[in-house]
Automatic annotation (TrEMBL):
Keywords: Kinase, Membrane, Transferase, Transmembrane, Transmembrane helix. PANTHER family: CTP-DEPENDENT DIACYLGLYCEROL KINASE 1. The keyword Transmembrane applies. This is Diacylglycerol kinase. The gene is DGK1. Coiled coil: none annotated. Residues 1-123 are annotated as: Disordered. The keyword Transmembrane applies. It comes from Cladophialophora chaetospira. Residues 76-90 have a biased composition (Polar residues).
Length: 400
């Protein structure tokens, strides 16, 4: 029996790409363990699927609308109304009809997770002034990473542990002891400090007004700098000012000891504070109990070595002033204290090793406190020699 109507042809059906949930279901299903050789052989045996070329005969998708078929997304409709970098993006609604445009999509702005965007330089030296609220929030230990190229290449050696900077710090202490044993007086060293300050100070000011010179300066001396000094003044300036004040206005042994405390105690506090500061209590921002204890121990050892071993074996020299050494292996209570305690003039006096031990403990405390305190935000290279020399002078003036 024949039918008057022809049988329609079987339509071509193109299976859409699997959705995310279908792919995950396949991945989550169990497969028996297969060795790498068997998997390689299976891939070689499996023929690669040939691409299907659709004919544009009008039966496919509508090309005039520039649309193509796509599996319907199972994600909910997303509506965003946010602000990025201070400009409103407006309300955007994603179409879920299964048809998406093949036109290129513009790249969106990077998300900032609520933080301020990375500032762009406007020709000045530092683009960070708009980010930090005050210079006190710019912690010096550890300093931010990325401003000096050498800090990125040698992150552990230069940026984290500051090995070149600490080697320079420690070597200045040994150089000071060398000059002391040679009989050089304080008034012959201070002009050299002023000369260095006259060169380094204007150079540091010049690099803040010339971006090209600043890049050259950082390239040459970047290993000895902290990255916070890129937009600030170099710590060498404060080092020279502090050393000049200690040597110019105090006796010879007090000035030398203050430089030794700056050179060795500050380095010990920084090293042990970074290594073990996380395990101890925090005394203030950037200062821990581990660093303060390290400064105290190194200060005690430095005082024992200097006043107990080096000073008795050095000098006197022909050009020494009258009483160049303030500590004479003797400590005594002030006369007012003796009167209040009703002591004889020869009482309340300690000499020899006992006096050295008391002075050494006092020196360690002064070194630890001067390294800890924040004096109007001044640099440690300035506050440590000034505070330590003033503290030692007051102690020996009262009990010496």
């Amino acid at each position: 029996m024949s039918y008057p109507y022809p049988i329609p042809a079987t339509p071509r059906v193109i299976s859409p790409s699997p959705t995310l949930s279908e792919s995950s279901e396949r991945q989550d299903s169990y497969f028996a363990p297969v060795t790498r050789s068997a998997a390689k052989a299976q891939r070689q045996r499996s023929p690669q699927p040939e691409p299907i070329h659709e004919e544009k005969d009008g039966s496919g998708s509508d090309s005039s609308l520039e649309k193509r078929a796509r599996a319907r997304s199972r994600s909910p409709i997303v509506t965003t109304n946010s602000q990025i970098n201070g400009s409103a993006t407006g309300s955007k609604r994603r179409r879920m009809s299964g048809l998406t445009s093949i036109k290129p999509v513009s790249k969106s702005e990077p998300l900032t997770n609520g933080a301020l965007p990375y500032p762009q330089s406007n020709g000045h030296l530092s683009p960070y002034d708009r980010v930090k609220k005050s210079w006190r929030e710019f912690s010096r230990s550890p300093s931010p990473l990325g401003l000096i190229p050498l800090h990125r290449h040698y992150r552990n050696l230069i940026h984290k542990h500051e090995i070149p900077r600490k080697v320079l710090h420690v070597s200045i202490g040994f150089f000071t002891l060398r000059l002391f044993t040679k009989g050089l007086q304080s008034w012959s060293i201070t002009p050299w400090l002023l000369g260095g300050l006259a060169i380094i100070g204007p150079t540091d000011v010049l690099r803040h007004h010339s971006e090209r010179f600043n890049r050259f300066y950082i390239k040459v001396l970047g290993a000895l700098m902290r990255e916070t000094e890129v937009d600030g003044y170099n710590g060498v300036i404060w080092y020279l000012v502090g050393a000049y004040g200690a040597l110019r206005f105090y006796p010879k042994d007090i000035g030398v000891m203050s430089i030794l405390l700056l050179s060795w105690c500050d380095t010990a506090a920084s090293t042990f504070g970074r290594l073990y500061g996380r395990y101890t209590i925090r005394l203030r921002k950037g200062k821990s109990l581990a660093g303060s204890l390290a400064a105290f121990v190194v200060g005690v050892c430095t005082a024992v070595f200097f006043w107990g071993y080096l000073v008795p074996r050095t000098g006197p020299f022909p050009n020494d002033p009258i009483n160049p050494i303030m500590f004479q292996n003797r400590l005594s209570l002030p006369p007012i204290a003796k009167q209040l305690l009703k002591l004889e003039p020869n009482q309340g006096v300690i000499v020899g090793n006992a006096a050295l031990a008391v002075l050494s403990i006092c020196t360690g405390l002064i070194a630890s406190v001067s390294e800890l305190v924040d004096l109007w935000g001044w640099d440690d290279n300035l506050t440590i020699p000034l505070l330590s020399s003033a503290g030692l002078w007051l102690f020996l003036k009262a009990f010496g």
